[in-house]
Amino acid sequence: MGHHLGKLEVLSLTKRFGRTTALGGISLSFTPSTITAVIGPNGAGKTVLLDILSGLRRPTSGHVTLSGEDVTGYPPSRRARLGITRSFQAARVFHSFTFGQHALFSRWLARLHDDQESELASGPGQSTALMAQRLMDGLSADLVSTPMGELSYGTQRMLGLIACALSSPKVWLVDEPSAALDDVNLSRVKVLLLTARERGSTVIVAEHDLRLVHELADVVVQLDAGEVISVGAPRDQVGKPSIND
Amino acid sequence: MTYLDYLAFSVGFYVLLAVSLSFPANLAGMMVVCQAAFCAIGAYTAGLLVPSLTHDGGWVLAASIPLGGIVGAGAGLLISRMRSEEVVLATLGVQMIASSLLLNSSITQGPMGIPKVVASSWLGFETQSDLIPTLVCVAMAGGAMALSVVGRRSRWTLSLHAMHDDPVLVETMGHSATSLKIQVMALSGAVAAAAGTLYALKITYIGPSAFTVTESIMLLTLVLLAGKYSTTGSAITATLFVLLPEALRFVGFESYVIAHVRQIVFGACLGVYVAARSRNARSHMVL
Fold first, then answer.
1. ipTM, interface predicted TM-score of the complex
2. How far is A94 from chain B (nearest CA, A)?
3. Is the distance from CB of B188 to CB of B21 less than 8 angstroms?
4. Contacting residues of A for B179, CB less than 8 Å apart
């Protein structure tokens, strides 16, 4: 289980786009076995923060560390190999792939392909990948064998999230997990996120749905205009007027 | 050179070039418009080596393939961070620079080209037969086809398909899209350079007019006509491109007419292809 532990920290992180400051020198720490919800109004900097954590954007200044290793200059592919997995707000899947192919590709990139079966059979507790595999097994054969470009938007989103979970992420960055999902698919995603937390993953969720935040999150970070307004337990945060507005 | 020899070589040559371009274009979705430039690297390597340094076609081929690979990798690095429309423009720029160099450099002997590119041996075996480049070309085209068929379910090919669909997602899943683009362009450049070398050794003369932007655009169109992910389709369109106009010889057309008919047939195919794609796209629209 040790290789799943990944403490992610940001130090004095600043991101500017021209004269606009998206993130204004924030410092945060995200611990393993914890779901941290990043909330705030549109333009607060939630997605920019996830982009920087995953390496899709470079910060103007500041540092990102994973288990003490400075990963600020690492490209997304290198961070992914270190265990940082990113799920997007939009449905991002390989449209020409079936979900079966996508899952195979995801496992291969996570270097689980060769010993997937043994890990699934003998891994300690319910691994995220095992839970994802179970969810995948519960899907209809048609759904797994249809090119994903032909599936509905919500189904693509759900499958994209399951594919991320198949890679057994050390750190899982999830942008708006509830977007475009119906109750059935959202409950599947909740199970995955909770399993990832139990498994020791560091889960960071950017979310607008405060009910979901209250249900899932251990820690809530409130952002506004690129600044950290507050950090704390959900029951201490969600009642605040600025969040509920 | 007999007619059948000419036909076999032409089919092998165009199949080799089409397959070389189908790796980046069909499999990875990179619209590369400088394949004629890669081909020229192989041809001019032969032109510069054969009279002065060696008369062995095998060694020339062995020299041109890595050279084409290096230049292809360089082009891959250049376009690795570009979007698809930028890739078209950048590779068009590479092609134009190459054409200009071929036309104006004293090393390439400018518009006069390089004559007498004749290999008198192949890997140490003395032979004057001009069938050897044809046999090598057809064998390489067959080998490239076989490799692409065998490897179509490989992880590498799957990665290229994934990159075709969404390079950002590939990156965030742990595969460097930059590295993939460099690899596929290196392979493409190497295979195209091999085709160019064989062309030079077969025709025994090379000039800049054989490696223009028109050739690159024509090749890209052949490959696009084959459809997404279809290396085999690229080989089929290349074969038809050579053979269909030749059929006109047997209904009494003169040689100079055939070249024009080829362009007309090609233009018509393009029109049909674009119309079909456009109708397909409309059928998927949600109103």
1. 0.84
2. 5
3. yes
4. 77
